[in-house]
Amino acid sequence: MRAVTISFFGFLLVIAATVISFCDGNSNMLCIKSERQVLLKFKQHLIDRSNRLSSWVEGEDCCEWVGVFCNNFTGHVNELHLALPSISSDVYTTKAEWFAYVRSKLGGKINPSLIELKHLSFLDLSNNDFGGLAIPEFIGSLKSLTYLNLSSANFQTAIPHNLGNLSKLHYLDLGHNSLFEAKTLQWVSRLSSLMYLDLNYANLTKATDWLQATHKLPSLVELHLSGCFLNNDPSPISVNYISLTVLDLSRNTLSSVPTWTFSLRSLVSIDLNSNGVEGVMSNGFRNMSSLKFLDLSFNSFSSSSTLNWLSNLNRLQFLGLRGVSLQGNFSIATGNLSSLSYLDLSDNQLEIIEPKCLESLCNLREMDLSNNGIDQEVSEVIESLSRCSFDRLESLNIASNKLSGHLPDQLGQFKNLVYLSLSGNSISGPIPFSIGKLSSLKVLDVSHNRLNATLPQSLGQLGNLEHLDVSNNMLEGNISEMHFSDLTRLRLFFAFNNMLTFKPNPSWIPPFHCDSIELRNWHLGPQFPQWLQFQKNLSLLDVSHAEISGVIPTWFWNLSTQFEYLNLSNNQLVGKISYFPRSLIVDLSSNLFTGPLPQAPSDLMFLFLSKNLFSGPLSNILCNSSTKLETLTILDIESNPLSGEIPDCWEKWQMLEVLNLGNNNLTGKIPRSLGSLSYIMSLNLHSNNLFGQVPSTLQHLVGMRILDLSKNQLTGSISAWIGDKLSNLEVLNLRSNNFQAYIPDQICALKSLHFFDLGYNNTSGAIPKCFSNLNDIATKRPSGFMDRPMEFGLGLTLYLRALLVMRGREDEYSVTDLRKNPESYIEYNRGVTGSLRGQIPENIGNLELESLDLSMNRLHGEIPSSFSNLNFLNHVNVSYNKLTGQIPSGTQLQSFDRFSYIGNHLCGPPITKNCSRSGETPEIINGDSSEGRHRSEVNWLYVSIVVGFVMGFWGVVAPLFFIRSWRFAYYKKLEHIGDKLNVFWAYVICTGSSFWCV
């Protein structure tokens, strides 16, 4: 009895001590003081930019803090939930949301004081950013941990092996970090209680024991080793994954399906996508009767005949066959795949989808057939699906195929459809009115088709619609407010490149608040769209080519704190602009804006102001000390009446890649500081009044691909460093300047040169023979930017432009133009004195030229016979030289007009004069004649000049000199005429101002 009494009192003392310990002087506080201090010390070393841990304050109950969970009885801290929920950076995420998400990430260091939390069983720090720190070694000492998640937290270096000491661990996720190469995974084998292991994107190249280390874990249910650089196991073993149901070996370099996987009869999910598997052992998969998830995407299957084994997987719910080289018809027996809810056949070469394959898929929820060559009626696919899965289908993607025909009315039966993409096909006709019945629809993309008529008003009934894309069709007609009546959730609205008209009532308030609106080529004007003032969340706006005129209203500049993309180009907007809104991309080109150039926001990346009436100097936008355009990548102010000199302050524009100041009234010399633009790819200063020499500092622009200095007054010689240093040049245009001296042989070092124009200069000398070594001019299709338009991110593909003189005319060719009509072009010094001499190089026929102009030079000799090899010529001009002999026979050369050859001593087609017999000189074209090789040639132009001079001198000047009476009469007459002119100008001045007649 006494022992019982002592034990009872001892128990009371323990409870009392525990209560005192819990309360810490406050009966309402559960948190233990020592553990609260640990958490506060832990917080001190964290970086919390969004103040997520604002509730972690001294004196407060730590069990009530955000992310802290305590045992309700003992008060010990058991769990720390400090993860950030994952977010996808897709089209539904605005830039503001993404920046807010990034700002919410915790950073800094993880304080070792956490070791003192002896009862901590759950630690989740995933989706934060610890700046490349190593995973702390002390975590291996948290012996009570059963859950550890450090995924996507920007940890680096090696995985600490003492994590193998966490014997109670059930869940371990270290995936999606930059973990360095591990030599072994033996430490994993000590985690006997482990049920979930994720090492995605850890480098396990040398950890060849990963299979031996993991298959012995008796409780392992899920194993994720995606992107771990795994190869085929060189020494297969008999595995013993007793409990494994989920296996992820995707994004590795496996050339075949590991044979040991076929022994895993309890496997429910296997992911082998993005490996090098070249076929499937179908007999192995036939026995995996429990399989529900199978992803074999992005491997290399030879044909669809290998897929017959799929009919045995009657429990299969997810089937991924994206990008596995399937061809022809997809016609597997799907009768036993009635459980299938997800089917991905995208990125193959399928041509036909047999309707019977779709009719039996009654549980189908998501289907992706995009990026194939399916060539059939769109109604055939939709009607097949409507027979069975119309009440379950949630996502249908058939984009980028060859579907034709009209959209059927059955489309309105898919009441649960959330995502529908039919873009990039040849679907015609109207959008059916039944589209308004898709009450669950969030995404509708029918862009890049041939849809006509107008938009149905039933679109306005889609109350859940968030993303609407009808761009690049042939839609026409009027749009009314009813088209948007219930679109309260619309965020992305793309309808550009149609012929639609939208002129709502000026007082109309749209029900939606969009992030992105693109209405290019709509008829929105002439007034500026007033309804835009209610779109306060805009990050992307394109109303270019919209027939809008007048002044931009003041409220417009306050629409958004940050535009990603603003395009008002190709309208008739007028007035002055004092500043731009904060933007990444601004395009105001082809309007009527006047006044000085406005100041630009500091984070601007692309600025297009060409073809306006901006005037004054460039210094306001370039050299303003308050403007730091450190991110500016493209600056295009072509074709404005800008004046003054180009400022010499380019040192701070280090990110600039494209600069176009062409066709202005700029004067002075080319500033030397342009040579500091180390990333420049295109420099265009054409059609100004620049003078002086090209500064040698431009030789530092080694990445430049376009250099256009044409139509200026530049002097000096053509520098040899252009060929020595600017090795990436593809367009070199020095036309219409005052360059002198010879063409340096170093130009031949420009192996990528595609367009070269020295016309209308004062160069002289022979054509360098090494010109035949210009490889890109010697090939029909160009390289470099001509084949690969530059991607600048943010959805912007830039097609660089250059003023090129082709076939005797001057045009502005974009990259697209050049890709469709590739021009290998050379022009030399036409119509100048001191021009090219010598003979045309014999090997010129090695070039696959399309345009060649050598006119108005002093070239002599015969046209080389290799000219007949120029099979791609569509323009040639060798007129007004001293060429002799027969025009080489060749289909191309005889097809040109005879004026391409006039002013020479040539014969043969297309010139009407036949070549003379042997020993005679051919007739001089264009009025010249010849009567034999030994008879002197007469140039009648020079004869007429001499005769005119003689007759003028002896007919007028000589009589005045020798006959005195004629000379006196002549000067008297001149004096009389002068008196009359003086009287006349006195009368004009007096009638214009009485002051001068006093």
Automatic annotation (TrEMBL):
Residues 1-25 form the signal peptide. Belongs to the RLP family. Residues 33-71 form the Leucine-rich repeat-containing N-terminal plant-type domain. Pfam families: LRR_1, LRR_14, LRR_8, LRRNT_2. The chain crosses the membrane at residues 940-963. SUPFAM superfamilies: L domain-like. Keywords: Cell membrane, Glycoprotein, Leucine-rich repeat, Membrane, Receptor, Repeat, Signal, Transmembrane, Transmembrane helix. InterPro entries: Leu-rich_rpt, Leu-rich_rpt_typical-subtyp, LRR_dom_sf, LRR_N_plant-typ, LRR_R13L4/SHOC2-like, RLP23-like. One of its GO terms (cellular component) is plasma membrane. It is found in: Cell membrane. The gene is LOC111296309. It is a single-pass type I membrane protein. This is Receptor-like protein 12. Residues 340-544 form the Disease resistance R13L4/SHOC-2-like LRR domain. PROSITE patterns: LRR (PS51450).
